[in-house]
Write a structure and sequence with these properties.
Number of domains: 1
Order of helices and strands: EHEEEEEHEEHHEEEHEEEE
Number of helices: 5
Radius of gyration: 17 Å
Shape: globular
CATH architecture: Alpha-Beta Complex
Distance between the termini: 34 Å
CATH topology: Fumarylacetoacetate hydrolase, domain 2
CATH superfamily: Fumarylacetoacetase-like, C-terminal domain
Strand content: 25-35%
């Protein structure tokens, strides 16, 4: 697992290996910043009548929202209607600040799967102030995993989301408005990106509501699938 203070691609730590059987996978990175993008796919922009943004539209998810493969995610009673958002994630491998796309691309260590769970009811509860941070910031609403894959061509990837084993979302990463290099470059002028930071590059068509009891998996060939089970709020 990568923490914000560690570099990527360095020598192994020397820790003893752990058998996969019976192990619980944590999120492969504990990001200092978990950044999400909105309106970054042409198909969804066209379907909804959105204008392509002049700059990536982003929000932050808190570190406490992060969970990994096999987690149980409790949907708080206050969340109301919740949707999944299957996404491709970029994992930053070094400090990146005020860089152009050519060098910013080298700051991307690898890719992972993201499920950016979102409460629609919270997001739209106050018309004058969409609550992006709260709607996307509940514990467990930032699913990352199962691994960080390197050496992939993002243009050839398809993001798929399955609910209870049934495919509900499938779209090509190549439909992005801003490419990964452009995203990292633009964001590096807004904030310093650091090793371990994660950027969810946005979702496209096919997002749907989910409910307690559903098993939701985001799958990308070459990375694998990250699956969580949604749980109801315990009765006190």
């Amino acid at each position: 697992m990568l923490t914000p203070r560690q570099g990527l691609g360095g020598p192994p730590t020397g820790a003893a290996p752990v058998p996969m059987q019976g192990a619980r996978l944590l999120a492969p990175s504990l990001p200092g910043k978990f950044i999400g993008l909105w309106n970054n796919y042409r198909a969804s922009a066209e379907r909804n009548g959105w204008v392509a943004p002049d700059h990536p539209l982003w929000f932050l998810k808190p570190a406490t929202s992060v969970v990994g493969q096999g987690a149980q995610v409790t949907i708080p009673a206050a969340a109301g209607r919740v949707i999944f958002e299957g996404e491709l994630g970029l994992v930053i491998g070094r400090t990146c600040r005020n860089e152009g796309p050519e060098t910013a691309e080298t700051a991307i260590f690898g890719h992972t799967c993201i499920n950016d769970l979102t409460s629609l009811d919270v997001l739209n509860a106050v018309p004058a102030f969409p609550q992006w941070a709260r709607a996307k910031g509940f514990d467990g609403f930032g699913v990352i995993g199962p691994v960080i894959a390197t050496g992939l061509d993002w243009r050839r990837l398809t993001i798929r989301t399955l609910v209870n084993g049934r495919e509900r979302q499938a779209y090509p990463a190549a439909d992005m408005i801003y490419s990964p290099a452009e995203i990292v470059s633009r964001l590096s002028f807004d904030m310093t990106l650091q090793a371990g930071d994660v950027i969810a590059v946005g979702t496209s068509l096919g997002v749907r509501p989910v409910k307690p009891g559903d098993v939701v998996a985001v799958s990308i060939e070459g990375i694998g699938a990250v699956e969580v089970t949604l749980m109801d709020t315990p009765v006190v």
